[in-house]
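Hey L., structure's done. Input below.
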Amino acid sequence: MPPSARPMIPLTLSAYTLVTANGRGVGPILQALHERRSGLKPCNFEDVALKTYIGRVEGLEDFSLDHGLERFDCRNNRLAWLGLQQDGFMVAVAEAKQRYGAHRIAVVMGTSTSGILETEHAYRARDPQTDSLPTWYTSRYRYTHNMFSLGHFVRVCLGLQGPAMVISTACSSSAKVFATASRLLQSGLCDAAIVGGVDSLCLTTLYGFSSLQLLSASPCRPCDEDRDGLSLGEAAGFALLESSERVGRRGSVALLGYGESTDGYHMSHPHPEGTGAIRAIGDSLARASLRPEEIEYVNLHGTATRANDSVEDKAVYSIFGARPACSSTKGWTGHTLGAAGFTEAVISALCLTHGLIPGTLNCERLDPSLKSRILRDHQTGSLTRVLSNIFGFGGNNCSLVLGTL
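Output:
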């Protein structure tokens, strides 16, 4: 299928930050990658009785939002707040406000669950006589569980007044924020954009994925011959996007291209021939004006479910053959769902700036049916062009091309 996308102006990631189970900020996360140190641990989330491993960010229960942010207080927004505090990100945004004005900076966030944990707690606390939900919940719903809560919260924290939206397309949510921000910038609706993804653990996802028989009882093993499911995690990440024509700095990481598709094959199973994935990858290359042979590393969606890894391998191999190095980084973080696209975009940026191609953590015996060149061990060396794939439920697919200017 020929690509339908036109080349785009690269967007510089002027600042970016990330919090996952194995680090707060890009420095600790890079160190965890080098040390092959996973953040996955046996499930200890609330009273969940499941034999599985999770990537839980420690400390979210130890504080609450205050100083005018009380109405937003929930696990998801606490995680967002933690992310905003890292890597001098809020300072970078303040400087961008000086350049453009608060009304010319957009906010585009991705999440899949928002503050659903608040609703879960509220239903447990219903009045036994009337079945009514508690007022502490109903009075704050629009600031917590409401899907726009995250966008609203980030906007208030950063003092921004430009366009704002939240994308929820399952796993691809926070990869698609890059695509939406690019269109907002291209249309002239803003001069810069804060993009990000935040997703936190909750009962719905843990028991939901368990009911689908997709959770592994051990740390997830992407691409392993004996892989048996995924590990869920949580993460928060943000980036400041600006046109490279304005702020292009030699050596900076930039979004070079994106591709989106929706194949709608099945509610949870990817298209067996990977048609949607192939279209997303092809369009991302077209927007970046790159040939397949110019991609040096593919950060796989790599969930460690048998179907996903096999179908993604088929799609990647059909375009790239066995030439570029490929790996999944979910063994470090778990599958962070609505934050996965952003988590892996930041990891890809770290790979570019530090010359690291991470191996696939926990993959002991590579599945011999997979044809792509999947790495088990780290490689080091100069990198200039990286592809990051995120393929979600319902066939919501997104691929991003990141590179150095």
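The longest strand covers residues 11-20. The chain is about 30% helix and 20% strand.

-- N.
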